[in-house]
Amino acid sequence: MLFDGQKFRILLRTGSGTPMYMASTKDPSMWPKPVEFQDFGVRPQMCLLENGILVASYGRPGIEVIASRDKSRAEWCDPYILDNRPKSADDSWNYSCCYTSMVPISENELLIFYCDFKYEVDGKEVKAVLCRKFRVK
Hints:
The chain has one domain. It is mostly beta strands. The strands form three sheets. The protein has a four-stranded antiparallel sheet with strand order 4-5-6-7, with no helix packed on it. A three-stranded antiparallel sheet has the order 1-2-3, with no helix packed on it. It has a three-stranded antiparallel sheet with strand order 8-9-10, with no helix packed on it. The chain has one helix at residues 89-92, and strands at residues 7-12, 19-24, 35-36, 42-48, 54-59, 63-68, 80-83, 100-106, 109-121, 124-135. The chain is built from one helix and ten strands.
């Protein structure tokens, strides 16, 4: 539930595997049909910041982050490309699982965690969990 009492869900449709969302201030049984906000992606995540901005992340192939300050959540910003390696779903597994996790750390900041299977340390390739700090206003 969002701060203003609005109920919001982000989900992954089975079959096509596309991230979708639905929002309503009404009883969930009266919610409209889910709306697709991207044509690819797995395991979408969301994080509501204290400033009221809702941030969503999704991936595979690649990882993208979007945000909405619109209370109806009908308008989203253009995606920020966090990881844009191969756009082939088969190749993406070689680089990352593309799952993300987000944690708010202030009114307008959050941390996004994600995997990199080909991170380099001292010239050697290792698997790593990376963290990026985002400021969203």
